[in-house]
């Protein structure tokens, strides 16, 4: 049977997961009503369409299994008993307030880890809106994909992608390695290991320098897991984001990070909390995939660490601080920069991931307080069964000891933001979502009549 070894970072995500800390990505996609000529389409038809398209994505047929070599490793292999109906489900909601109901249900579904003996993903059709609109929730284990790869996999359900799908190439089998390599291979292995050791030392030094050895996270963003999740969403005008960028320089991502920083400041004030003694630090994942290339299997990530200037009262100064921090990160690069922690996984033996996961799982709080990530979507209009995609809210997993993760996706002239929080630690997540909109208004005041 063809198989493919899990890359080191994928293996790390696989072993870092626990029942209380699931490590799956999510996306909540909202679709408008089907066009008039498809008004007779019933939910069972739509469910069948979802199941058929998901089953046609080869990656979604792969499960994780242990391997003998390398010791401690694991591999993806096709599930011989694959049944797409174990993964694709329908839930009908009351429909009185469909958006609120989908967010509540999505939070409950995101609490549950995906089954590890099966291909690690789930998909839910959420129906019941009075106007015929509907939503789809997708869950993919982080070992299966990073953000870009998740988009490439999940996009297979859309009409436009499914129509143009090419037959997938068969996975290349992993060639077993001999325990007794020849002299030439021994020399090559020695050179490789020396190079790996040098890179590991360099990356490890960057991670140590970035660590907050006092271990003091921002209190409002730290929490032991309650096993519950809460989800809130917000949509910001992409044109307004770009208008701010054009006026100040930098990137749209700099503007969005500044919006998050200001929203956190506003949220602290509304909670009656004092500002933290030090600015909270965000991990901003960075893809190592080359622009313009198709996403390969597995995760290919590094990350930048950015202090979000919530203690700065002036919005313009907050933006300048974020721009300066991101410029420093980009100048240092992902190997030597402060957020090189993801690269460290590439230098570790599979046994280190398998047995070191319990120790490493609590290390996030030494490096950052929250995750803020951006997931790119196709720029063209997308639909499902003719129903137009109105919004897609990405959802990131929570790190152990943290209570909040922020994910953003630009689509259709909006930046759709998905907030995932520990349900007990952040019961007022909707207030933070509202603060995002208010903060954009502060940076770019809306036109007054």
Structure at a glance:
This protein is an alpha+beta fold. The protein has helices spanning 8-16, 43-55, 98-111, 147-154, 159-163, 183-210, 238-248, 252-270, 315-336, 341-344, 350-360, 364-367, 429-443, and strands at residues 3-5, 24-31, 62-66, 74-78, 88-92, 121-127, 134-141, 229-237, 281-287, 301-307, 370-374, 383-384, 387-395, 404-411, 414-422.
Descriptive notes:
This protein is α+β, with helices and mostly antiparallel strands and 449 residues long. It folds into two domains: 161 residues, Chloramphenicol acetyltransferase-like domain (Chloramphenicol Acetyltransferase, 2-Layer Sandwich), CATH 3.30.559; 252 residues, Chloramphenicol Acetyltransferase. Helices cover 36% and strands 22% of the residues. It contains 13 helices and 15 strands. Strands 5-6-7-2-13-12 form a six-stranded mixed beta sheet, sandwiched between helices. A hairpin with a 2-residue loop joins strand 14 and strand 15. This is Diacylglycerol O-acyltransferase. Pathway: Lipid metabolism; Glycerolipid metabolism; triacylglycerol biosynthesis. GO terms for molecular function: diacylglycerol O-acyltransferase activity. Keywords: Acyltransferase, Glycerol metabolism, Lipid biosynthesis, Lipid metabolism, Transferase. Its EC number is 2.3.1.20.
């Amino acid at each position: 049977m063809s198989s493919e070894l899990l890359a080191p970072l994928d293996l790390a995500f696989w072993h870092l997961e626990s029942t209380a800390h699931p490590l799956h990505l999510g996306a909540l996609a909202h679709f408008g009503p089907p066009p008039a000529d498809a008004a007779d389409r019933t939910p069972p038809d739509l469910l069948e369409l979802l199941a058929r398209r998901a089953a046609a994505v080869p990656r979604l047929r792969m499960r994780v299994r242990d391997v003998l070599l390398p010791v401690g490793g694991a591999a993806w292999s096709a599930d011989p008993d694959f049944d797409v109906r174990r993964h694709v489900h329908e839930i009908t909601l009351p429909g009185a307030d469909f958006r609120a109901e989908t967010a509540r249900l999505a939070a409950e579904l995101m609490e549950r880890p995906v089954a590890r003996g099966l291909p690690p993903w789930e998909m839910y059709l959420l129906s019941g809106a009075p106007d015929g609109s509907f939503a789809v929730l997708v869950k993919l284990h982080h070992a299966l994909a990073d953000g870009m790869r998740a988009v490439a996999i999940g996009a297979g359900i859309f009409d436009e992608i499914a129509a143009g799908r090419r037959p997938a190439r068969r996975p290349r089998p992993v060639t077993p390695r001999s325990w007794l390599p020849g002299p030439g291979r021994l020399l090559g292995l020695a050179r490789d290991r020396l190079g790996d050791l040098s890179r590991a030392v360099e990356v490890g030094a960057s991670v140590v320098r970035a660590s907050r050895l006092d271990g003091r996270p921002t209190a409002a963003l730290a929490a032991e897991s309650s096993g519950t999740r809460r989800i809130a969403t917000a949509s910001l005008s992409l044109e307004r984001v770009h208008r701010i960028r054009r006026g100040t320089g930098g990137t749209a991502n700099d503007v969005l990070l500044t919006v998050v920083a200001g929203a956190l400041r506003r949220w602290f004030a509304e909670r009656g909390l004092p500002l933290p003694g030090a600015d909270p630090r965000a991990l901003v994942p960075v893809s190592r995939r080359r622009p313009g290339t198709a996403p390969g299997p597995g995760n290919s990530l590094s990350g930048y660490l950015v202090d979000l200037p919530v203690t700065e009262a002036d919005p313009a100064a907050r933006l300048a601080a974020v721009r300066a921090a991101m410029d420093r990160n980009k100048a240092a690069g992902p190997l030597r920069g402060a957020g090189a922690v993801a690269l460290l996984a590439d230098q570790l033996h599979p046994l280190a991931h398998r047995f070191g996961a319990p120790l490493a799982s609590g290390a996030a709080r030494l490096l950052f307080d929250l995750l803020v990530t951006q997931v790119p979507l196709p720029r063209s209009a997308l639909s499902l069964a003719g129903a137009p995609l109105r919004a897609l809210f990405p959802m990131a997993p929570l790190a152990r000891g943290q209570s909040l993760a922020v994910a953003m996706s630009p689509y259709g002239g909006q930046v759709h933001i998905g907030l995932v929080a520990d349900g007990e630690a952040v019961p007022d997540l909707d207030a933070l979502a509202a603060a995002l909109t208010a903060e954009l208004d502060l940076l770019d005041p809306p036109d007054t009549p």
